Amino acid sequence: MNEKFRYELKYICSEAQSIRLAAQLEGLLQKDSHTGERGYYTVRSLYFDDYENSAFWGKEDGTDMRKKYRLRSYDNDPGVISLETKERVRDKIRKKSCQISKWEADFIRAGEWYEVMDNSSPVAKDFFLQGTIHLMTPKVIVEYDRIPYVCDEGNVRVTIDKNIRSASAEEDFWETTLCTRPILPKGQQLLEIKFDEFLPDYIYRAMQLEDLRQTAFSKYYLCRRFSI
């Protein structure tokens, strides 16, 4: 669980840029230990919003302070499920998470909040409170393939997210294969850089690719635009 705010910078890059960047990072950073033999893992998140769609419209309106709630699984493994909140204040984020069981996740998806009210995690208690007061319901599934690099110096995490896609049928969250739609033009990918107080110079220099443009990209917002 991350208790402090971290910087998060996002960039849209082409496939050629991501290949070049990955080649540079291979010699500088370590792959995340969860990556496995494929060199990436698949992230699947189920996002929640309240009855006023506050998270969606907050992004639409450019609100400086925003908070999102989600369930997250990795490689569709029901044994590893995170309940997460993500707060943003301009370019800084704070993510809090806790591990929950599949049956807890299914109760949350069904809006049966009282079934998880005894979970002692502060994240679960916050989720329970917001879910019951603001009538939060699942809105959209976001899925993508992530290539992650990490560095202890500066607590840096660099990720390349490929094949970003969405699905509207939240009841299919545990299905092996989802019916999805892409949310970026073919070949476009998302580069994210997260760090605490400073970004080491050698990592900064590796990021200086021609025509790399910073963006205020939100996977949740773009995926929901198809259905709201």
Question: What features would you describe in this structure?
Answer:
Helices cover 23% and strands 37% of the residues. The protein is an alpha+beta fold. It has one domain (6-224): mRNA Triphosphatase Cet1, Chain A. A hairpin with a 4-residue loop joins strand 7 and strand 8.
Map the helices and strands.
Layout: E1 6-13, H1 15-26, E2 30-31, E3 41-49, H2 54-61, E4 65-74, E5 81-89, E6 92-100, H3 102-109, H4 122-133, E7 137-151, E8 156-167, E9 181-182, E10 189-195, H5 201-206, E11 213-214, H6 219-224
Antiparallel strand pairs: 1-6, 1-10, 1-11, 2-7, 3-4, 3-7, 4-5, 5-6, 7-8, 8-9, 8-10
Return the CATH topology: mRNA Triphosphatase Cet1, Chain A
Residue runs with pLDDT of under 50 for 5 or more positions: none
Helix content: 10-25%
Count up the helices: 6
Let me know the number of strands. 11
- What number is the mean pLDDT? 89
CATH homology superfamily: VTC, catalytic tunnel domain
In the CATH hierarchy, the architecture is Alpha-Beta Barrel
**Sheet of most strands:** 8 strands, antiparallel, barrel
The N- and C-terminal alpha carbons lie at a distance of 31 Å
3D shape:
globular
Instruction: Give me the Rg, rounded.
Output: 17 Å
Order of helices and strands: EHEEHEEEHHEEEEHEH
Instruction: Tell me the domain tally.
Output: 1
